Amino acid sequence: MAVRITNITELVWGRDLEALLRMCGEKECFIDDSASDYQRFCSLCRSAHLLPGNRLAYRASKILETLLEHPVDLCEENAESLWIESAERLLVTNVSPTYGDRFSALEADEKCLDICPRCALSDFWNGNSFLNTSRSAWEPWRDEMEARWEDAFQKELFGVSLTLPRGFVFQSPNPYAVDTALRKRESEADRNLLLAQVFRFLSEKCFKSKKILLCRVECDAKEAVRLLSYAEAKVGLSRLILCLVPSCDHPTLTSFCGVPHLNAVECALQRCDYPTDADFLAALRRCADLYPLGNLMILE
Q1: In angstroms, rounded to a whole number, what is the distance separating the alpha carbons of residues 72 and 64?
Q2: Model pTM above 0.70
Q3: What would the pLDDT profile of 188-232 be if each residue is shown by its tens digit?
Q4: SS3 state of residue 24
Q5: CA pair distance 282, 276, nearest whole angstrom
Q6: Please, what sign has the CA dihedral across residues 184, 189, 193, 194?
């Protein structure tokens, strides 16, 4: 027996769209399995302005336009009228669940730059400086980091930044292993362990003080996600911004943003990573399908 489509959400909804709307900031109760189809559609309409160049938002808009046979403006103000009009049309029109598969995304253009929020890197304190220490044991190093943290945030800073360099491999830190790594500091494994400890320390401090943690991911994205998941489970994550470099695996990191977290996990691009405006626009186009450009931070 053929599936009967009764409302527009049944045509456009899927787990990818749910994750995308979560990255737009929609509340779980409006997009998860407990939400009604109408609530989900309203969530899409509320967030559509954040999604230029995104294939899922474009597909939803084109499905509506084709079904209703007139142009539509997918926005919060039009959600109720579009819902009613499309439901009435579907009462008299048989459509397949694959109705919208022929629609693909328009490319993001220069106008997308106008909706991306900006932030200055100078507003973030460099957390990698914690690795510059002469301490050879965990407790003195912890005390030193505590003191430097207090000094740093006497200033009005936006948050703290940390770079995960190429070659970083996650290791779960513990006081004994950190003591050993501080004494030796001979191998890349020692450096990775100390960096993981710094990330845990900063995550805990930012979580408690509600500071933003900016993490530049130059390493393998899967290793970064292992570190992020560890810190989230152990000490919690504050608002987190992941800086996507040209060489990193963007889908792995944006997928981490798209699952539920206590605080927002967002993405950013650093303008100086791209030598020309054309290179930067190409990066925005690649991001448009993975992350809402209206929430994509541009670091300058």
Answers
A1: 7
A2: yes
A3: 899 999 999 999 999 999 999 899 999 999 999 999 999 999 999
A4: coil
A5: 10
A6: positive
